[in-house]
Amino acid sequence: MKPAKEFLQRYPLPSHFKPDDLDLLAAFMETYSTYCCLNAVHETYHKLIGRIDAKWDKRLEKQANRLQEMIRQYEK
Question: Does 56 map to a domain?
Answer without folding.
Answer: yes
